[in-house]
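ok so i was messing around last nite and threw this chain in just to see what happens. nothing serious, just curious
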Amino acid sequence: MLRRVIFLFVLLYSYLGFSGELNYSSKELFPVHDEMVDACQFWIKIFGNYNTNQYLIHDSRKLNIVYEVVTWGELDESKADDPFSKEQKVFFKKKTKQYEDLLSGIAAVYPDTNKMDSTQKKLVYKLQDFKNKTDFLEARLRIRVQRGQKNKFQRGLEISGRYMPFLKATFAKHNLPEELIVLPHVESSFNYRAYSSAGAAGIWQFTRGTGKQFLKITYEMDERLDPILATEAAAKLLKRNYEVLGSWPLAITAYNHGAHGMKRAVRKLKTNELNTIIKNYHSRYFKFASRNFYCEFIAALHVTQNYMSYFGPINFEPPLAYKEYKLTQFIEFDTLSDHLKIDKDLFRKYNPALRHPVYDNSKHIPKGYKVKLPVDMEIDSVMAALPASAYASRQKQSKYYKIGYGDNLSNIARRFGTSVETLMALNNISNAHFIRRGMTIRLPVESETQLLVAINREKAEQVKPAQTKPAGQILAARAAETESKPETNTPLELDSPIVVQQADSIPLLTFWLPEPRKDDTTLTVSTAQLVRTTGKTLNDLEIEFIKKSDPAEGYIWVEPEETLGHYADWLQIKTQQIRNWNRISYGTPIQLNQRIKLIFNNISADEFNRLRLEYHRGLEEDFFVNYEITDTLTHQVKNGENLWYICNYIYNLPYWLVVDFNKEVKLDNLKAGDKLIIPAVRSKG
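result:
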């Protein structure tokens, strides 16, 4: 049920009840120019007054102008992180249009109030700073909707007690102002499991690209999710930003916009004053979030240091106290947890960096991982009692299947001797009917052998390695112990390759599905003949090998979300070597489906493909653990839009997901008027 609370047309903050100056420490380090006060006060209201079921319709530049506050249903904490539903998007689009029409109507007759109706006159009276028609017409283009955050902020304060000693100690070690530790309130409300629909993770909301500069991110673990490890990374990033930019307002804004982006703004406007940059800097990517990030920080600092005025007493969680034990071998989670007699949820609370494949025993806890356990546990003696047979000498292999025409979970389960329930649990699928062609699912691991699947052998023999990827595939990856190296690619906006989207996952072993006929809506997949082999296979159409060479050489095609830095990591070489092989100059972006030459000096092609596949599988798993697709929308491309902009600045969705829904569209050559299918997603809570 929708309830709307309407404050008569325009609410200036003098009427919203804000009084007194901004009250926070270290104002000399974190100054607020007079031009930024209204924005700070706006965010104080968002953090301290309005809950997540309340939406403010406001001016995106003049944040003291709030047209209306809409309360959408009852407050439901489980929906606090939900993106806009389709119903909400339709409603707020209509609501925005009402205010656009109202402002346009005023502009058409301004300043003749005799030609205005009573509603228009009241609005003109409130907008006394508007002096001409242009002011009203420009305001028409700045209408925006902002969700309240009070209940999330309060919960974040409670959780913050768990990690605050570590944050304070880390920032003190790096000689950084303690005030910076409120940034997780802005980024995630201190939710260590926070995962944005665009792929940022953890309390500091690192993207994969930025996170890999400081943290280990593999298929088995994601250190972005460990608040203690991620805090060390955040301190290093903020310190680097400050050293590059020379002031905390710029360095904090760079946490959102990137240091190179802020250097460009400083260079273009010839100023270090953030208020001047906010007012005058124009860039496709310096939008609302970047313009407001510093003011959000100031607001969070004010609310945190004056929390009693907004929330009353807070029940802060006690600090997390733990011991560490470094594993010398691989071990299955169930084996370790059974031996330790520790609950899965408690273990996960202490070890949030371990990913779902570890907790469902598809992967071992990695060798070298430092297990965190409650401080009162006698960890050394308990671990010493573990028999040698509990450990494994290498990581478990991964086995995958790519869904093809006519597939459903029932026939896939029958084909591979498992159950629908097992497939759903392994792949975090909430609805057995909601699978899509091209989606890669994980299969239960039975042994260390590989599966070679032969379907439609006659067709497979006719197809050459350079041809199009098959519709359905069984994917098996050899087990191997790997270390992830920090990625050194530069931020996308400056020199890095464009963010490119995952199309199809990368198979090691392949089978073929019949192509659909035009008059068919579905096509039943014939039963696979499974042939076991203990040797590795090079029946891999994803690499076009260059004759016989030692070491092996071949070509791959760029998949979504890949960079040269990824290839260098997986090949265990420097990125410049790949540039040299392909005559790619530094700073030149790679494109989706671009052919790239690789030489497999340090690892095999099979191992490269395993790492590549698990990277893409990790992207999918992380997303679908946290979100589900509920519907689709149609987006008509406007002038100046590209797919990266549409994903990141309009819908806040991962690039690979939108590409997956638009396989028939020439995404590298979008034109105004083209239509895209956009998935509507909902948080699983």
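not much to say yet. Residues 400-622 form one domain.
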